[in-house]
Fold:
Amino acid sequence: MSNDKLVSCISDFKKSLNGQTIKIHNNDYATVALRIGIFRRNLGTTAAISTSVLFHDDKKVIVKAEIFIDGKLISTGLAEELRSASRINQTSALENAETSAVGRALAMLGLTNDRIASAEEVSAAIVQQDKQLTTALSELDKVSHLGSYKSWLTDNQKLMQSVRTNNPIAYNEFLEKFNKIKSKLETNGVIKNG
Structure:
């Protein structure tokens, strides 16, 4: 393997970070998609990403990713996803574990901005740890009239703003769930459209 290819790839990654990272708790994180894109742009078909499932059952999935350049193993990454960790993981734990393992392997390769974890990994961990969002959505689902809906909005405004500012990926997931519940409340006549 030509070390120049990998060094060039890492250099291109560092140059490409400006405006391409996601800020979570005042730290910048690269997405897995950005890492893969720059990896492929620089190394093309001289590089390969191989993934394998090391373990899976009804509770969790463990995936290993390996990065090869010119047929030589250069780096690896492991990821574990719990099927109960989120609604998405109930159907896509394998895919999420694979994405995380690839992101970690690329970070171990050197495609990192001083953070091994990807934006997706950090966001998922924060969402999992942040029971406030789950509680807020559960309370919203129990709203029975317009007054309690307005009260819910007032009570949760700071939480929503904080998540939106500090964790945009988690906020987008939260917003998707919020909109589903809001739509149900509108359909049931609890609140008016708008």
The first strand starts at residue 22 and ends at 24. The chain has two domains: 3-127, 130-187. Residues 130-187 form one domain. The chain has a mean pLDDT of 84.
